[in-house]
Design brief:
Layout: H1 3-20, H2 36-42, H3 44-70, H4 76-89, H5 92-103, H6 107-137, H7 149-156, H8 159-170, H9 176-189, H10 194-202
Helix pairs in contact: 1-3, 1-4, 3-5, 3-9, 4-6, 5-6, 6-7, 6-8, 8-9
Length: 206
């Protein structure tokens, strides 16, 4: 299977997931619900969670393209790893909505919502790491990976450890999850596959 077909399918799934996020944002014209300003203030958790999850999925899309720019080919195992990634990505709209809804109420339900939202992001990180590990360890990249493959995979797969750790820490104060997940999204906005740029430079004549 060509990398193009896999990327096209993944792009479609990611586009649907990122669009579904906005469906949880709404305002009522019913006066009983209060003024628009009041509603926007009351629903701050929904808007904050939307912004963070939009950035997360957007960054997933960018890094997914970066990963498959490395791929010379894909195999059956890699396709299933990609499906695992998409499985968790498609849960993000639901877990975002759930987390935002119960965040406002607090209590034990808010802590459960933290774990649910964290599970989506942890699963996404696992899927991403498996994809990169498959590409690197089975020589499926367009050029041999420079540097230590183990350290390359560890750097990219940092979220496998951090996302569940953040979930546990946030049980004490659920809003903390949004702050740290925002910082993790910013971290992943930067190039996490620098060996691609190094390979490209080394391939230049002279």
């Amino acid at each position: 299977m060509s990398t193009g077909r896999l990327e096209a399918f993944s792009d479609g799934v990611l586009a649907v997931a990122i669009t579904l996020l906005v469906l949880d944002l709404k305002a009522s014209t019913d006066r009983a619900a209060g003024s628009l300003a009041h509603q926007l203030g009351h629903d701050w958790a929904s808007f904050a969670a939307y912004a963070v999850s939009f950035l997360v999925i957007g960054t997933i899309w960018v890094n997914h393209n970066a990963l498959f720019a490395l791929a010379a080919r894909v195999d059956r195992v890699l396709m299933f790893y990609n499906l695992l990634l998409l499985l968790f990505v498609t849960t993000i709209p639901f877990t975002t909505s759930t987390y935002a809804s119960f965040l406002r109420h607090g209590g034990s339900d808010a802590r459960v919502a933290v774990l649910v939202y964290g599970a989506s992001n942890t699963g996404m990180a696992v899927g991403f790491t498996l994809i990169l590990a498959r590409l690197v360890r089975h020589n499926m990249t367009i050029r041999p990976v420079t540097g230590n493959p183990r350290s390359v995979i560890a750097r990219f797969g940092l979220g496998v450890l951090l996302y569940p750790l953040v979930s546990l820490i946030s049980l004490a104060w659920p809003p903390l999850m949004l702050i740290i997940y925002l910082l993790l999204a910013v971290y992943y906005m930067f190039e996490q596959t620098p060996f691609l740029r190094t390979q490209g430079a080394s391939a230049e004549p002279g």
